[in-house]
């Protein structure tokens, strides 16, 4: 009889010990971050080895600004937020995966980034399989948010923008266009989207050039475009559009320029050859953000930094609501956010967690980017 009682008591003791260890263990994802002295999140940005490194560095400043403000207000549950930055090292999917693994090795499963589409395409399946939250403010891939319930976008995917630009060109009376993109994933996709919609409307794409991103000469492309004799030229090669514009004008291509996305830093580097270019963009940084960014860093923010700032604040809000850094709980809170008034304007989120905004047209005039009414 005593043996039976002792056995029963032993079972209860083991159950109690197991319950205690489960509640107080720091090995599970729910305990990561809030269990320590700081709340740790990660960021994967292009910080070197790319034309986009200045953009990545500017996005890092925007992210730092958001976290400084959060910490000045008491952080999360009284704990400061700490960001572990990993360099995407150019537009390389392999380096992005390495950056992700580096963050995972430190128990971080809530990540802002990556910067552009090639890395996003590489990381989305991993995020889905291994339950890692990725919230990007700068990649414009239409595939990213729908790829997983753990992937989110605070920048609108650019597919619809490219369709809208094609429709605008057709309504304006153009019937024969040229497109210059590249083999980079996003730049190729936008070229394809513009061509698809323009041809569906009844227009003709006289030529669509998609050189390697390493090809900065573009002489052959310029000669082919000039020979095709288009009525206008559409750029989707965002990364090197300033190089392309100079080359096209050098070769006597005088048709109007249009572009899917553009930025003030690229306009400046184009040395006047993008003057008069009309482009479409979903980016609309609010003056309050621009002013405090400039006050903090002494310079205006680059294109896209506002959406990264919003990504940081949205992630912080979700962690606060979840009272945890468990990716499952944070993901659920992110999915519950349907609208957000932030640095990049009013955002509405679709069923996949992707931001929706009304694209706007802009024109380069006198070296400045100004709103344009079609």
Q: What does this 3D model show about the protein?
A:
With 374 residues, this protein is α/β, with parallel strands linked by helices. The protein folds into 2 domains: 32-157 and 285-356, 3-Layer(aba) Sandwich (Rossmann fold), CATH 3.40.50; 159-281, Rossmann fold, CATH 3.40.50.2300. It is built from 12 helices and 15 strands. The protein has helices at residues 2-24, 53-72, 93-104, 117-130, 159-171, 185-201, 219-228, 241-250, 264-269, 287-297, 305-322, 327-336; strands at 39-45, 81-87, 110-112, 133-136, 151-153, 176-180, 204-209, 232-235, 257-260, 278-281, 339-342, 345-349, 355-356, 360-365, 368-372. The chain has a 7-stranded mixed sheet, with helices on both faces. α3 packs parallel to α4 (117-130), α5 (159-171) packs parallel to α6 (185-201) and α11 (305-322) packs across α12 (327-336). The longest helix has 23 residues, at 2-24. The radius of gyration is 24 Å and the shape is elongated. The model is unreliable at 1-33 (pLDDT under 50).
Task: Assign the CATH class of the largest domain.
Answer: Alpha Beta
Determine the N-to-C terminus distance. Answer: 91 Å
Order of helices and strands: HEHEHEHEEHEHEHEHEHEHHHEEEEE
Strand content: 15-25%
Q: What kind of oligomer do you see?
A: single chain
Give the CA-based shape: elongated
Tally of separate domains:
2
* Largest sheet report: 7 strands, mixed
> What is the CATH homologous superfamily assignment of the largest domain?
Response regulator
What is the gyration radius calculated from CA atoms?
24 Å
How many DSSP E strands?
15
Kindly name the structural category.
alpha/beta
Helix content: 40-55%
Mean pLDDT value: 91
> What fold name stands as the CATH topology of the largest domain?
Rossmann fold
Number of helices: 12
Q: Tell me which CATH architecture of the largest domain applies here.
A: 3-Layer(aba) Sandwich
Low-confidence stretches: 1-33
In which order are the strands of the major sheet placed? 7-6-8-9-10-14-15
